[in-house]
Amino acid sequence: MPSMLAPPAVLPGLYFDGQQGKGHAVQLHLDGIALRIVGDGIDRTVALRSMQWPERTRHGVRIAHLDGGGSVQSSDSAAWDDWCRTAGLHDSLVVRLQQSWRAVAVSGVLLVALVVALQHWGVPVAARAVVALTPRTVDAAIGDYTLGAVDAQLMQPSALPAQQAQHVHDALAKAVAGMSAGSVPQWNLVLRASKLGPNALALPNGTIILTDDMVDMVDGNEDVLVGVLAHELGHVQQRHGMRMLVQVAALGAIASAVVGDFSSLLASVPMLLGQASYSRQAEQEADAMAVDVLRHAHLSPAVMVTMFDKLAEWRRRKELEAKAKAEERQAKESRESPESAAQAGESSETTQATTGTPASPDASAKEPGAPSKDDAQSWLGIAFASHPADAQRVQFFQEAARNTIR
Amino acid sequence: MTELTLPMPLGAAPSFEDEVPRWGDFADTQPAPATTLSIAFTGSGSEYFRIWIVNLLLTLLTVGIYYPWAKVRRLRYFHGNTLIGGAPLGYHADPKKMLKGYLLVSVLLLLYSGAGHFHAVAGLIAFIAVMLIWPALLKSSMQFRLANTSWRGLRFRFTGDLRGAYWAMTPLFLPALCLVASLVFVPDKNKPPLWYGYVTAAVFGAIALLFPWLLQRLKAYQHNHYALASQHTRFQATVGMFYRLYAKMVGVYLLVMVGVGILVAVVGIVAAVVARTSPKLFSQGFNEKSVWFVVAMVVVGLVMMLMFVALIKPYVTARMQNLVWAHTRSDDVRILSTLKARSMLWLSVKNWFLVVCTLGLYWPFAAIARARMQLEAIGIASQISLDSLVQHGRATEGEAAGDAAGDLFGLDIGF
Fold first, then answer.
1. DSSP class per residue in A223-273
2. CA B177 to CA B157: how far, in whole Å?
3. DSSP β-bridge partners for residue B83
4. Which position among A232, A327, A339, A367 bears the catalytic label?
5. β-sheet bridge partners, residue A29
6. pLDDT above 80 (res B279)
7. Which residues in chain B have Cβ-Cβ distances shorter than 8 Å to A141?
8. What ipTM did this prediction achieve?
9. Which range has the worst mean pLDDT, A134-138, B13-17, B281-285?
10. What is the dihedral of CA B205, B208, B213, B219, to 10 degrees?
């Protein structure tokens, strides 16, 4: 702050008038309110408020920009800083923080805490708020568009008899009939044949896609299908698809603010991890809804355990099929050329991994094939997984079944 | 970080690092008719690290409102540490003005990213709108950036006009126009027919082929319109030069890919041999195997991308900088750029290694090191005395929105 009575501090410097590239050696007088520039044929007084004053840094030349062009400069930064201090000018808080390693360390810790807090609470809460403000018509428009895109790329018309589809529909309608009015969103069930395998998808407009393979896998058991569909209903109810869109955008903004300047590739790693964690939370919320619906319908949550058992069985079968196919090919290839046997071993792995990937009932519409994991408890698998481990979910449903009073 | 010893400027201009009275003499020295100015960069990684951490924290705490202030501080640090012939560059943009620009562009960006989720056509319209606005944003952002940059008290100017900006984009607009025009003949937008796929492929092929031309037009638009006092720059690099560089880049890319291919093959063979000798390793549960397979795929994908950014990008950056700046000159000033692709490559590998090892903490150091290498490779030869530079009139500032757009859309508009 200005100290009016102190004599003006003086510093030799260089003055550029903004019209010519020629610099003038001058004496700079500073009194806290104004800067007086005195040199050979130059005597100019400028109010400090009209200038852009430089900040203290350890490296770099001090330049004060004059309003309307021109500047005064000094290469002796230490002398400049002393000069400012003598005249009663103080560093801003930001500059003081920047120049102190201790403050930087504290800032670093705060930064990490802030990023973790944002990822954990901030972004999900903000997404809820944004989605709550978004009219349902937006969900409908996005859902309609996604259904069109999914139908064109992944789905064929269902091969099951229309009667069976009607039965599944009625079973779900009956199950949710007893629920309170606000707790069940509008829904619309469609059946499709798909290369996704046994699966179910929920779209933001309330459309639930059930694959033929899923119906076949549980032998058309309607109780189990109600559980699967109630899980999807949970996604619709919680508007997970919409929330995910907002969360991904927010995460992207944060990630690019933190490391985006260096590389967008680097920024995509925390985004991937954060997204997977949100997705796991969404699955848990949807599972809770499934239990809720099943209980209201006087069905045991254990039907979901049946579903997971069937799923594991289905995967084993697929694995065996793939292995048989690969062995057949390997045998054939090693008959043809002994050298290529090594490669065959490699490719058999590929076939297995790609044929049997995702089969657990799926959340958001555009989810790519995430690996399912029964017993792969490695941290890497968990970090990248978009679903909680099957074992964990089975346990959840078993417990729910035990606690259900029938 | 230790103090840097600056390379002495080659010409008559004394170093800025001398004690003040002597440096004051510099104003009165008459440089020889032919002056050579070298560029020294005095920024320090550790100091920029401190600036980065504090400003990043403030930006996040204020939900991004503080970003323009952080950006101005960053640019002031880089400019103030760039000494051309001993005199630093100045940057004096007003963060408040930039904030308005950012808010405007954020709204645009939200509309743009939101549109694609509703309808394919809405997304397309938003894309076309951005494409149409982009040249105007490019022009005003160049104007803003240059008008807020000064050297020896003289403000830079960008003299490009709107028509030139659109003209520069024609190599991209023409194929894109074909794509949009043929959309009229598609009956169901959600199920485009097969021929539309071919048209799309052809258009993207054409854009890939026309890319060097587009780049040359854009660089010509920028480098033909820089001005400082009475000096106006001209750009003399031809389209042919850009195509030659592009061809070389493709060559380097193929070379790197062959290298990666050999690497993958070796790993594959080793894995196969291991699988053969100890089959137990691979006969665990199917699900676990698929997890590891996906992880392996992700790692291979990341390595491929890392190869690109760590190996090919520095090569292109070095060659492009040399090509573009060595062919930029004004009546009395020539610019030289002798950036070695090999040095850039080595620096990039080192930066990436350390950034990954430190989980990103090294990146301010990397940014400083990269700026130093790129800037110090540039030299300036002037036929006239720098004291005789005289500015007529004032530079127009342009819209801060343009500068903001360049940041958010991730476009390279820096110079």
1. HHHHHHHHHHHHHHHTTHHHHHHHHHHHHHHHHHHHHTTT-HHHHHHHHHH
2. 33
3. B40, B88
4. A232
5. A10, A36
6. no
7. 118-119
8. 0.74
9. B13-17
10. 150
- Tell me the two tokens of residue A82: 């002393």
Q: DSSP 3-state assignment of B393?
A: coil
Q: What is the pLDDT of residues A8-26, one digit of tens each?
A: 688 999 999 888 888 899 9
Name the residue among B19, B117, B298 with its Cβ closest to that of A145.
B117
Closest among A83, A68, A86, A69 to A13, alpha carbons compared: A83
Task: Tell me the CA end-to-end span of chain B in Å, nearest whole number.
Answer: 27
Among B368, B300, B408, residue whose Cα is nearest residue A60: B368
Quick one: pLDDT at residue A176? 83
Closest residue of B to A68, CA-based? B394
Q: Does the structure show a pLDDT above 60 at A358?
A: no
Amino acid symbol at A78: A
Structural contact between residues A360 and A372, judged by C-beta atoms closer than 8 angstroms? yes
* B113 and A CB contact within 8 Å: yes
Q: Do A349 and A333 touch, CB atoms closer than 8 A? A: no
Cα–Cα distance, A290 to A233 (Å, whole number): 8
CA distance A295 to A88: 73
User: In Å, how far is A239's CA from the nearest CA of chain B?
Assistant: 15
Give the bridge partners for B156, in sequence order: B228
**Could you confirm whether A339 is annotated as catalytic?**
no
Tell me the CA end-to-end span of chain A in Å, nearest whole number.
76
Residue type, A261: D
CB atoms near residue A245 (< 10 Å): 23
